Batch of 3 targets.
Target 1
Amino acid sequence: MRILAVDTSAKSCSVAVVDEDSLLAELTLVTGQTHSKHIMGMIDTVINMSGLAVSDVDGFATTVGPGSFTGLRIGISSVKGLAAASGKPVVAVSSLDALALQTFDFSSYLVCPLLDARKKEVYSSQYRFIDGILEKESKEKVLSPEKAVCGISERCIFIGNGAFLYQKLIIDKIGELAHFAPSCRNTIQASTVACLSMNRFKKNDADDIDSLVPNYIRKSDAQLNLRVS
């Protein structure tokens, strides 16, 4: 099972090709430029590095949010185009699920990924590893970082650009209970996205391409302004 996976949910852009449990190739960039300038070139590069052709890929996986409104649209549109052209299935993956899985070596801790949502808010959820399997314990929300850590009374590993941005606030709120993933983990790796999608592909549990849309959680500024007017 060969999966091409993409993440464009934040400032980073990541593409990977995974064959079952083996990572064949991966490329991650953080340039500050729009992902539309790089995504297709990165896909071509990673496919070539893996020694495959797009026709050799069995399916595509992409993060669908929460995250950057523009970034998510670019990644999802790119994957939908490849899937439509090739007739291969697509699996949608939560950005927060991907971040949470990247704390696998802190499996005894509560896991709290935080993605910067701007406007002094974060996208967040809580997870726990049970017998080595990542389990989601709360719904994905957008809220202030203070509310995101409210009620945490056990050792917790924080991960994501929101965890980095609000590290001092988190420590002030819950003190020694707060632990932070290494900074290199705060960027979602496309290989993690592929890993999360693999079981669904094996079960033929793909998403409908036509209805595949970003999971923004929060309304866009344009929608909010329209409602006000």
Target 2
Amino acid sequence: MTEVGERLGWGIIGIGNIVRSTMAPAMVVEPACDLVAAVSRDQGRADDFARGFGARFAYTDYDEMLANPEVHAVFIATPNVFHADQVVAAARAGKHVFCDKPLGINVADARRALDACESAGVSLGVNFHNRHLPWVRDVSRLIAEGTIGDVRVVQLQVASGPRHYDNWRADPVMAGLGSVHNVGVHGLDFLRVLLHSDPVEVIAMFDRAPGSGEVEMLALIQLRFENGVMVQYNANETLRDPLNDIVIYGTQGRVVGRSFTRSRSDGELAILTDAGETTNRYPAPEAHRLSLAAFTKAVLSGEEPNASGLDGLRSAQVCEAIERSAREGQLVEVVY
């Protein structure tokens, strides 16, 4: 394993818009991060990125970056189908790995990635940045404390607004799933955090006329969690003017989060109990930076990352059940 000092040296593979607008700027400003290197298929593009963000190395070969001793950890932001192989390669090179979601386009890939990191003794985290939103922390604690009693039903939407993909995201071989892997996994992840439980049954319907290639752009999902909570979930990239809201019904109250389920907008949280209703505003934080900072701290302190590789595997297991339910038109048990 590469020796790590007081700062974590980062290499990035995949330098698209999300990395340029979120993760790379976060690595530049986070005191414990050192953006060392980047990889692109095009040398000129890699050079431009390195100049723009102060990285010392620019590569077209991922293995060359992995051989650099100044790189302690890699952030993987390539098309979904490549994630597992790139995680395995990084682990074998002794690098810690922070992978964008999904960890794998299927359970076998996600498990292979997790096993490789465990065998190599390196940390594996997944960029489920929404679980780091302040409202998720607060509502998770509120539910655990029983403020609204026992949770019975949750209704939520996670939606980007209309999109049309003419790139790898429209290809199921490259992307796996569409709206589920693009936006839906975030809600599936923070539901596990909020409810302190895992889904055990799912039933799903996908749109039959996708707006982009052969992948679904709208998924309606119902889930039953191990603790009995039932969830209605709309994950889509097709509806205009979406309400990215969440409503949580308990036996002694209700929580309503408005404009909350995406990380890029301000939100409002209303809590209703027998004592009355309270409302609080939540400005949009830099969720990707919070996620990066949490992983960096975990590596430097020897803690388990949040979200971990196991969280990535759990997500893949739920997504596989969702895909099977939509394909077969029946309720499916989640296999862990």
Target 3
Amino acid sequence: MKAVIANKYGGPEVLQIKEVEKPTPKQDEVLIKIHATSITAASTFMRLGTPYFGRLFIGLTKPKVKTPGTDLSGTIEAVGSEVTNFKVGDRVMAETGLNCGAYAEYICLPFHALMVHQPENVRPEEATGILDGACTALAFFTDQVKVKKGQKVLINGASGSIGTAAVQLAKHFGAEVTGVCSTINKALVKDLGADKVLDYSKNELDQSSEKFDVIFDTVGKLSYCDSRKHLSKRGVFLTPVLTFSTLLKMMIVSPFSKKKLKFAATGMRKEEQRMRDLIQIRDMLASNKLTTIIDRVYPLDQIQDAHAYVDTGRKRGNVILSMGA
């Protein structure tokens, strides 16, 4: 089978397509023929090995796992003798997390992995595309803060993979949502349910005097200290991007302020929490309460081009890698 192999950290050129042995499922595993996987900003960070302290988990000098990819959709092709909750032919969507492995034509996963049946009303590209963004946003909106009706929530990077999901989820919880994005993406963010949309290229947030209960900086571009003026009295600033500066402010500034800064490595939470979120996302997809925004779909042999495009920081929603199924 074909798989993407990365033997070192670096640019898109480190991603090479190789012929490798097709895996065979163990007694407690399923063999999945992968139809699609997504390429996220997190994927490119892992390819680069940045931030550097993240290498404690993914490999100090080179990737521990040679085949990247943290989410997928596909069809179960074989099952081990101990598997009872899935059968051959089932369509599934799954998260592999730091175990990676989704940039390949096949993968074996334990039957108890973060895996659920794919809703019949979504395509494989839509199923895998929503996973990273929606699961990240849902974790922040339920575990770090409790977004609820009547709150004012600002989402920076509202047109990205996390942002497009966060807008929909915040509205689902009853919040008044303000999105921040580029001029070209304002209509998209409005269509997703945002009550207001601010143009970052025109510094419309800086010019605003509005206060927010939650500011979710999905792309790590805002400063917590600068954003405090936009937070309500007990507002919370959320970020999924951990930098050394953010870490210092969490330790030194946030504990002594009513306006808090919170970071979470959502992919490293307890498995039961992650499964809870995955099931909720699956159910929202099935009931058409969540929409996956897809920017581009690349075939496997264009993996380097796909990563180069994500590296530009201009993607709109999600970028998908298709296995051609």
